[in-house]
Amino acid sequence: MTAFTFTCRFSYLAFAGLLAASAARAQDTPVRRTPVYPPPAPLATDTTSADQVGRSQEFAVPSVLGMGPSKGLVLHYERLADYSIKTTEFRNSPDVNTNHNTTVTKNARAFVKAYAPLINHPHLKVVLGVNYDREEFNFKDPAASSLYRNLEEKGLKVLGAQLAVIRPVDEVHWYIARVKGELNGDYTSGELTVPDYLKMSAEFIYGWKRTPNFAWGVGAQLGYTFGRQSIYPVILYNRTWNSHWGVESLFPARVSFRYNLTRSTLLYAGYTVDGYNYNIKLREQLDNGLQTLIVRQNEIKPRLRLEREIYDFLWFGLEGGYRYNASFNALDETNNKGFSLFRGSARNLAVDNTLGGAPYASLELFIVPPRKFLNKTASK
User: Among candidates 294, 159, 314, which has minimal Cα distance to 228?
Assistant: First the structure.
């Protein structure tokens, strides 16, 4: 074997050994990858289980981390301070009317609401809700107007049921659809005729879940938020900025800024727009001869609210604010058919009331899913 041949073979073997050593080192040294961090775990007060908004973004929902607990049963009582009322009863023409005024010495509202999941899967949730509301008025001088006499100690009731569907489409998109029927008025069980008192409302919102802390959506509602049945656009915006601050809104009906004082104490500041619509059969005719009325209320309430846990599944809420009355009018039943786009066109009123502003306060007790139940759900 010549020296040249020996040198070539030695160089080849050395090169092969170098390649083998490099391959071995490559197998021993892991390839550097971009680190993957798990999403934050849900707070104890989150509205849904961890498989929805905490540990996984597989199915998007409109709730965000830090929101208060979902409510299963709600007991609510609200009372307004005394306020003035000025009433104009129109006859056959707006130019022919009678004027009255007095003080409302009692305006109290109470309601019971209950919600139960019919279907509760990560990709589909169907919730059934029922409610019973009651509102009462007392006047300092009920004899001043036939309207006051008809409303004095009369229970204005709402008996309703609703079906809500929350449908996550994928890890980002979701939508909510809801339909609700209510029987509104001064009926009793013995004289109730459903077509005379039935009020229908509905909503649809399509949204995006950008992060566990941010969800928003756009849609439309058909309902009585602005007094008479109307359809209007809505914007849902739920966002948690940090461990304390967040916002929950369904604009224009309500906006609330949230402060998480602790995991079991939440503070809110914002406003709500409330609308009520009652069918009333009068005990005695008004001065204009009407025997049945549609009473419409619309009010704006800036408010402060505290929610706090009493024991695991039991919470209470305290709320206070100021009620600004936008309208409190009455129409002949025949002038309240159909619905309007946004506020709708003006209608001839049978009674026009001007109400003074008044502070209000409310107390609420509500039952939420026990924390042990949420922990079990999160561990599955």
Answer: 294
Query: What contacts 283, CB < 8 A, 6 or more positions away?
Result: 149, 150
Residue 310 CA to its chain's centroid (Å): 23
Q: Are 82 and 105 in contact (CB under 8 A)?
A: yes
Count CB atoms within 10 A of the CB of residue 203: 21
Predicted pLDDT at 95: 57
Annotate 36-71 with b (16+ C-beta within 10 A) or e (fewer): eeeeeebbebbbbbbbbbbbebebbbbbbbbbbbbb
Residue 51 has pLDDT above 90, yes or no: no
Distance between CA atoms of residues 355 and 289, nearest Å: 24
- What residue has token string 């830090």? 66
Other CB atoms within 10 A of residue 341 CB: 9
Spatial separation of the C-alpha atoms in residues 60 and 52, rounded to whole Å:
7
Instruction: Answer yes or no: is pLDDT of 43 > 50.
Output: no
Sorted by sequence, the CB contacts under 8 Å of residue 75 that are 6+ apart come out as 112, 364, 365, 366
In sequence order, what are the beta bridge partners of 214?
A: 211, 239
Q: Say which residue, 12 or 182, is predicted with more confidence.
A: 182
Residues in the chain: 380
pLDDT for position 373 = 64
Cα–Cα–Cα angle for 376, 249, 297, rounded to 5 degrees? 120
List, in order of start, the domains of the chain with CATH numbers.
50-379 (2.40.160)
Q: How far apart, in Å, do the first and last CA atoms of the chain sit?
A: 73
Query: Which residue do the tokens 């509205």 mark?
Result: 47
- Nearest-10 Cα torsion for 31, 36, 37, 39: -160
Q: Which residues does residue 215 pair with via DSSP β-bridges, in sequence order?
A: 209, 238
